[in-house]
Amino acid sequence: MGIKMKSKRAQLTIFVIVGIVIVGAILAILFYFGRVSFQSPDKANPKAYIEECVKKVVEPSIKKIYANGGLIDPKLQIMYMSENYTYLCYQNNNYLSCINQIPLLKTRIESEIKKDTEGGINNCFNSLRMDLEDQHFVVRGEELDYSVTLAPKTIFLKINKPMQISKEQASNSYEDFNVRIQNPLYELSGIAAEIANQESQYCNFEYNGYMLLYPQYDIKRISYIDSRIYIVGDRDSGKEFKFAVRSCAFPPGF
Fold first, then answer.
1. Residue among 144, 114, 139, 116 nearest 128 (CA)
2. What Rg value do the Cα atoms of the chain yield, rounded?
3. Is residue 166 in some structural domain?
4. Residue 112 within any structural domain of the chain
5. Residue 41 within a domain
6. Is the pLDDT of residue 21 over 70?
7. How many Å apart are CA 46 and CA 53, to the nearest integer?
8. What is the pLDDT of residue 252?
């Protein structure tokens, strides 16, 4: 009887020890992952928050680019049907071919988007910081390094902003907040640049032939007074890049 009691006590002791080990292991795991990753109610994923905020900031600028021939605040325009169209190629004199107003259109568009949105993107990070500090997080950050690149079917925003977010013993570090926006601006602005180049050289662009080769694009050309209005569209997305050309114009009466 005494042997059986001792055996049961030994088994009970073993179970208790095993239980303590398991609980300790669970607590250790929770503590470890708590140090690696924390969550706050609204900012559990700072990268996801910044991505969403950046897209909201950039979208209005992209719309301006499409409507204004690649510029945010264009100066040289013509009004047609209550809309202003920016000249990408222009010649004030008659009979002469136009001069390309923005030879490096892709580079200019990237610069225009960056200039128009950098302040808003800084505000995204400031908003993130203030919300986290309201939840008693400590936020340390460095200066924003930001660039815009047009790529096939994509607008790529390279955002470098080193940040450290900590609370008590938990700490996370972030650096890259890159954002990709699916958009055909690279393709449509490339067609617009080709149109401007050909209008400059030949006073014409064979848009019907171009659409036969590339049926995914819809190009409309409208003759108006002494200019031509171009609307270059992507059939899949419905996006349209709009601009105007004045090249080899004839004086009134011809």
1. 139
2. 30
3. yes
4. yes
5. no
6. no
7. 10
8. 73
Looking at the predicted structure, is the pLDDT value of residue 4 above 50? no
CB contact burial 15-30 (16+ within 10 A = b; e otherwise):
eeeeeeeeeeeeeeee
Calpha distance 35→210 (Å, rounded): 58
3 found inside a domain: no
Helix (H) or strand (E) holding 115, with range, is helix 105-134
By DSSP bridging, strand 179-182 and strand 227-234 are unpaired
**Helix pair angle (105-134, 46-67), 10° resolution:** 150
Query: Which residue range is the domain that position 166 belongs to?
Result: 46-246
Q: What pTM, to 2 d.p., does this model score?
A: 0.80
Counted residue by residue, the chain has a size of 254
The Cα 125–Cα 89 span in angstroms is 39
What span, in angstroms and rounded, lies between the C-alpha atoms of 198 and 194?
A: 6
Residue 254 has a pLDDT of: 55
Domain tally, the chain? 1
Question: pLDDT at position 7, please?
Answer: 53
Per-residue pLDDT tens over the stretch 113-135? 999 999 999 999 999 999 999 98
φ and ψ at 66, to 5 degrees?
-65, -40
